[in-house]
Amino acid sequence: MRKKIVAGNWKMNTDLNSGLELAKAVSEKVKSIDLDTNKFGLIIATPFTHLYAVSQVIDSSKVQLSAQNIADNEKGAFTGETSASMIKSVGATATLLGHSERRAFYGETSETLTKKLKIALDHNLLPIFCIGEVLEEREAEKHFEVVKSQIDEVLFNLDVDDFKKVIIAYEPVWAIGTGKVASPEQAQEIHAFIRKIVSEKFGAEVAENTTILYGGSCSPSNAAGLFSQPDIDGGLIGGASLKPDDFIELLKIRMQE
Predict the structure, then answer these.
(1) What is the pLDDT of residues 164-177, one digit of tens each?
(2) d(CA 167, CA 1)
(3) What is the pLDDT of residue 257?
(4) d(CA 37, CA 61)
(5) What pLDDT digit, counting tens, does each position of 130-165 carry?
(6) I need a surface site. Which of 35, 44, 81, 102 has the fewest CB within 10 A?
């Protein structure tokens, strides 16, 4: 059975002190939950500057630590970049890749992401690979085409064994930080489509065991409807991950479905 996951992307929020307080609060609150980590996962993706300090205050048996990005090179003269080995050395065991903000603001292409994905896997980092369409593509009814191309051009370069190590996060870009949310039916439709094309590529068993998360203004007020859908395995959470009570409530909702 595929793992159900709630992952928090802090983005460029919190300084070190407030980030530590947030991480401590999340770790403390999850202690009261009987969390079967074979079935459920809780992940926090903090700024680079926080990773080592956060790794020292969380219960890593219940909270997995993720970076928000990695460099597309292993080392060298790349000022300002942070490599996968650096990420591993400070306690992270996962990384986001291909977030819509990285694609839109920093020009990340499928070619770049293919390199990053290979590096992440080479370093045994869990890749959380983000895909999704912008509003114009949704309104033009090109969302299936866009999502398929994003998967084809990167994830389907992997062999089946490496693909099994990847989490997919579908994020309707028009819903991120806007307060707009894809309806449960809209989200389910595209999650089912993703699982279908994975099945066509790697077979039904692999598709059935692929974790696919929903990202896009997910909160305790709408999570039950989203998480009840058969192909939505959890959430990649933005704003609500900065509020410990809300973030843990999302985990509880995910565990109920």
Answers:
(1) 999 999 999 887 76
(2) 14
(3) 61
(4) 8
(5) 999 988 898 899 999 999 999 999 999 999 999 999
(6) 81
Q: Are 163 and 151 in contact (CB under 8 A)?
A: no
Least Cα distance to 97 among 65, 46, 63, 131 occurs for: 131
Domains belonging to the chain, first-starting first, are: 4-256 (3.20.20.70)
Helix (H, G, I), strand (E, B) or coil at 19: helix
Tokens of 230: 């058969």
What backbone phi and psi angles, to 5 degrees, belong to 218? -85, 135
Using pLDDT thresholds of 50, 70 and 90, give the confidence band for residue 180.
Answer: confident
Q: Across the chain, what does the average pLDDT equal?
A: 96
Q: 50: exposed, middle or buried (C-beta count within 10 Å: 0-12, 13-18, 19+)?
A: buried
Closest CA to 26 of 50, 2, 49: 50
Catalytic residues, by residue number, are 99, 171
pLDDT computed for residue 174 by the predictor? 82
DSSP, res 84: H
Range of lowest pLDDT (63-67, 176-180, 233-237): 176-180
- CB atoms inside a 10 Å sphere around CB 189: 15
Q: Among all chains, which residue has been given the structure tokens 């203004």?
A: 217
| Nearest Cα residue to 14 out of 250, 177, 248, 241 | 241
Q: What is the pTM of this model?
A: 0.96
DSSP H or E segment with residue 33? none
Distance, CA of 41 to CA of 77 (rounded, Å): 36
| Rounded Cα gap, residues 113 and 70, in angstroms | 10
